[in-house]
Design goal:
Distance between the termini: 60 Å
Helix content: 55-70%
Strand content: under 5%
Strand order of the largest sheet: 1-2
């Protein structure tokens, strides 16, 4: 097998992995939404199909560079990824995860904020914001140009920041889960993660909901650090209004424990 064919096969395999990972994760959280908040996605079938099509296209754009880098790591030792747990001190494992998450969050904040400038928004980012409201299927619903800006950061980081292969897998899992849960229209995480001292620094769906409502704020992905430093943090959003709109579309977006959820959301309005 020639090197070119091997790289192509690796890229195809990684594209398949990214696509299946998206379908499984988004599908699982969409099913959880149907159980917890029946009717929240009522009337959004056309939108969700569009989200799936854009997301699977994005999976290809994410998968190709990841596949090339994966081949280079396994066959040429290109990257700083290591598999021997003793190659670095054990305390470095959580540190490396935090380094990757912070670097990714920094890249995401500034590219995302740039995407909200008139020209890039009109040309690319409008595809993502066409989801009103976003659903669990919208996590990767990007224009190809925007998908490309997101696809390069992790493959670049593995060349400069050492990380154990298991820690890298954890980072990718966090990236996938947060991308989906930030868009699904309700808060899946416990209250302490989005209110109080910890919630003041972490981003969950409550924080990202306000971005999709007001656009010019709350640009981060994992942490509120850059939003707070740059004055673009406008707090957490109000799911009660989104759920009320779902009722107007003919669904019961409140679901189980709706009164308690609205009470939590109302304080942020």
């Amino acid at each position: 097998m020639t090197v070119a064919i091997a790289i192509i096969l690796s890229a195809l395999a990684m594209t398949l992995i990214v696509g299946v990972r998206y379908l499984v994760t988004s599908g699982a959280f969409a099913a959880a939404t149907k159980w917890r908040h029946p009717g929240l996605y009522t009337g959004l079938d056309v939108q969700m199909r569009r989200e799936i099509v854009w997301s699977l296209a994005s999976a290809t754009i994410y998968g190709v560079p990841a596949g090339v880098v994966a081949w280079g790591w396994q066959n040429r030792g290109w990257t700083a990824i290591y598999s021997d747990a003793h190659a670095m001190p054990l305390w470095y494992l959580p540190v490396s995860v935090l380094l990757y998450l912070f670097a990714h969050d920094t890249w995401f904040y500034w590219t995302h904020r740039w995407m909200h400038r008139p020209v890039p928004f009109r040309l690319a980012h409008a595809v993502h914001h066409a989801s009103r409201p976003p659903t669990a299927w919208a996590a990767m619903a990007f224009h190809p140009f925007e998908a490309l800006t997101g696809a390069v950061i992790i493959p670049l980081l593995v060349f400069v920041i050492p990380i154990h292969v298991a820690a890298l897998g954890f980072v990718l899992a966090v990236m996938t889960v947060m991308g989906v849960t930030n868009h699904m229209g309700w808060e899946v995480f416990p209250r302490f993660m989005w209110t109080g001292a910890l919630g003041g620094w972490l981003i969950t769906a409550s924080h990202h909901q306000r971005h999709h409502e007001q656009y010019g704020c709350n640009y981060g992905l994992y942490f509120r650090v850059w939003d707070r430093l740059c004055g673009t943090d406008r707090g957490i959003g109000d799911f009660a209004r989104a759920h009320a709109r779902a009722k107007d579309r003919g669904g019961d977006g409140s679901g189980r424990a709706s009164a308690a959820h609205r009470s939590r959301a109302d304080h942020a309005a």
